[in-house]
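Appendix B, Record 12. Input sequence as logged:
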Amino acid sequence: MKFLAIGFCLLALVIAGALLYSALKAREIAARFPNEGRLIDVGGYRLNSVLVPAGPDADLPPLVFIHGASGNLRDPMGAFRPSLEGRAALLFVDRPGHGYSERGGAANALPDGQSDAIAALMERRGIGAAIVVAHSFGGAVAASLAVRHPDKVAGLVFLSPATHPWPGGVDWYYSLARTPVLGWIFAHAVALPVGLGRIDSGTRFVFAPNRPPADYSERAATALVLRPDNFRNNAIDVANLKDYVSRVAPRYREIRAPTVIVTGDRDGVVLPGIHSAGLKRDIEGSELVTIHNLGHKPDYIVTDVAIAAIERVAGKTVDLEAVARRAEARIAGDDEPASGGGPQPDQTPLSPSEPI
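Logged structural output:
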């Protein structure tokens, strides 16, 4: 019994030390990537967002950007603001429980609750109907927004979306992190120190076979997801997704907004033949653009194609196929290895950045 008691004391000390380390590191990460947005009440909790006003010569309707799993508003803002600022009002949103947004109630553990929150935010930001641009997990939220709030959606641009049920499940740490007690300990004591050492390899995996921009982790503030509450919210989102899309995907047939889906044929994070092809099948009149040798990040690797898709959805005359083929030629020689391990397509078919 004496040795058992000593063992428990040592374990408690290790856990306490890990909790303290994670708390200090989380503060460092927040100081390194401070909030750039504005927190606005959307019904008892606050969503964080950055609204970039339209310029005097704006030629596009408002654009709302929804980030994927493990992300925050800086991810799409880093990809699109430099090219689109002035052309439209741009709203970049931290989904509930991500970045600097508050989580809100239990409904926000599913895309429906998150889409309701974004619809409320659009009202408070003075945005009526907008073209919604969504990456990866954000695709499920955008589809929900189109189903539940069609008056808010003038068009949809899906980038490597995760929207349909897939074979297999998700990586073990998502399921663990959402459990009541062990999940809390894992998120607050283990995820951050382990994840800090795997941000670079996780980023390479998500971009492969394409090369990430050298400043991507800084531009997208990827380390924010390692903060314990963010990490656990992200895990709950991901772990809930398959059951959610299994129930809700049949309703995508109700969507009537103009839609373009952009995907790569070497996406190792989601399965394009299930998600992107599924949206093409389910949304009447939608257009699917598949780019050879593109991984999971069309927002950064073929930003020109994504912008052309936005223009097409806005009703402009755009040779989207020609833009896509030029981008395809540009990345034809990319062959970056998905080093450092990471989720496999039949295990974790979602998320823009997998830090552990």
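The radius of gyration is 20 Å.
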